[in-house]
TrEMBL record:
Domain TM2 span(s) in chain numbering: 20-67
Compartments where located: Membrane
Alphabetized UniProt keyword annotations: Membrane, Transmembrane, Transmembrane helix
Presence of the UniProt keyword Cell division in the record: no
UniProt topology in membrane: Multi-pass membrane protein
Coiled-coil positions: none
Primary localization: membrane
Keyword Transmembrane: yes
Transmembrane segments: 23-42, 48-64
PANTHER family reported for this sequence: DNAJ HOMOLOG SUBFAMILY C MEMBER 22
Pfam family, any one: TM2
Highest taxon of the lineage: Eukaryota
Name by which UniProt lists this protein: TM2 domain-containing protein
Length: 145
């Protein structure tokens, strides 16, 4: 059993955390990146959900951005001390994230996409005598997601 632990083969230890590599992150990015496979591999489930629901970070824009972001994602997943210190320095320098026009435009575009998907799912006419148009009042809630 000790030999397996030394070789990294023993995975039943509660404190065990596998080391993520750039190779596999780029592999999953290349063959499943539009669906967020690399984010699932790195344990970034929230980001993976956004990729799945927007086909690669709003039709591939986030997918292309990840070409140069994957090394930072891997360092974050592995709790690299240099990455953590750099992150702490940035948080101390900027108490809140700086405004980014690109981030704002992307958030607005994703909110619009989800609202349109929700709106298109509501039948225009009555179905078996039931009018579903009152569900339009929930569009702001969908945008807030």
């Amino acid at each position: 059993m000790e030999k397996a632990k030394e070789n990294g083969l023993y995975m039943h230890d509660p404190g065990y955390k596998s080391v993520k590599t750039k190779f596999w992150a780029y592999f999953f990015w290349l063959f499943g990146g539009l669906f967020g496979a690399h984010h699932v591999y790195l344990g970034r489930d929230d980001q993976a959900f956004v990729y799945i629901s927007t086909f690669g970070g709003y039709i591939g824009c986030g997918f292309l951005r990840d070409i140069y972001r994957i090394p930072a994602y891997v360092a974050d997943a592995n709790n690299d001390p240099r990455f953590i210190e750099d992150f702490k320095r940035k948080v101390r320098a900027n108490r809140k994230p700086p405004f980014s026009a690109v981030r704002f435009a992307a958030q607005a575009a994703v909110a619009y996409l989800w609202a349109e998907l929700f709106n298109s799912a509501i039948p225009q006419e009555e179905v078996y005598g039931i009018n579903f148009r009152y569900l339009l009042i929930l569009v702001p809630a969908v945008i807030a997601l």
